[in-house]
Design goal:
Blueprint: H1 2-6, E1 23-27, E2 32-39, E3 42-45, E4 54-58, H2 60-67, H3 73-78, E5 83-86, H4 88-100, H5 113-125
Parallel strand pairs: 1-4
Antiparallel strand pairs: 1-2, 2-3, 4-5
Length: 126
Amino acid sequence: MINLALNDKLHDEVWQPLHGKRICIRVRDAGIVFHFTLGVQGMIARHAVAKPDLTISASAQDFFLLALRKEDPDTLFFSRRLVMEGDTELGLLVKNTLDAMEMPPLDLRALLPARLLGRIRTRLLA
């Protein structure tokens, strides 16, 4: 789903320093952890590693507010609601790149199964 949303943006040269890096997104209050790397096909799920290059942690609500663009990542970071551990330079690159992207706020209707399946079908047939 993330690859569909960011499809045309993940291949920009700005993302090149992320290729092959082990990144972990931790949703603290939900007990959910995502491990992935960025490759030529987009984000690729990976098994947990002992020490990822970068871990970004926040509550589900704070990640949701970020996706809706109702909260600023710097505000969350300095209030310790958003935590980055590991390669801080990589963390700043991710944050600054996402901030600079021209993306509309999250539209939950786009996550309806029929719309997602339609986008996947279009991508596979292209």
